[in-house]
Design brief:
Elements: H1 2-15, H2 17-25, H3 30-49, H4 53-63, H5 65-77, H6 82-109, H7 116-141, H8 153-167, H9 174-201, H10 213-216, H11 230-236
Helix pairs in contact: 2-5, 3-4, 3-5, 3-6, 4-8, 6-7, 7-9, 8-9
Amino acid sequence: MHKLWDSIKSGYLRLIEPVADFLVQRNVSPNVITTIGTVCTLAAAAIFATGHISIGGWVLGITAVFDVLDGIVARRTGRQTTFGAFYDSSLDRVSDGALLGGLLVFYSVESSHHSVPMVVISLLAILGTFLTSYTRARAESLGIDAKVGLMQRPERVALLSAPQAFFGLAFDGWVLAGIITLLCVTSWITAVQRMQFVYRQTLPVLHTSARPHSVAANVPKEKSELGGSPATARAQSPQ
């Protein structure tokens, strides 16, 4: 599955290469690209909310290119800045919340597809998505790269765009409901996986210098197994 996804990403990057070249030649600011991409995503979210699921999927799928182009242009033009990374990450959260929020509104107001369970699942998906992002950001503030777990952001965008573009509300909306439920479950699993990862990374290192009394008695007094004095060995053992 990972090899397939990597192949898809490689093909996608080759496809948008001419667009990236054009933007670099025009010296377009990466932050402008990020802003345009967010506005387009908000438009897709509004389309989802009005019940035009297939159109929203196509709009999101086509304009998701901006989410990749801003990073490529920043690297090629030497405009990688701390604020740029912060700005991009902040607007990504706006986009994630808006997309799932649009679907939540759809299930709340659309009479033919009104569903309280799907409203709850959509809300849980929003919370799970934010928690997934927060756990990674908080880990990075501790010096830990927690980019682990089932569902990364590119996969979320792909699942919110491609199936909706091709299926819309086909099969009485079960495809859409299944995608949202999948995103909800995998986002919470990813958040838990990142918590577990950070927990393992922050576990205290257990030294093995301490020995049972019966073994220590066989060590010569003038030298320990660590090659130092007994006092040194004690200093290296956990307190």
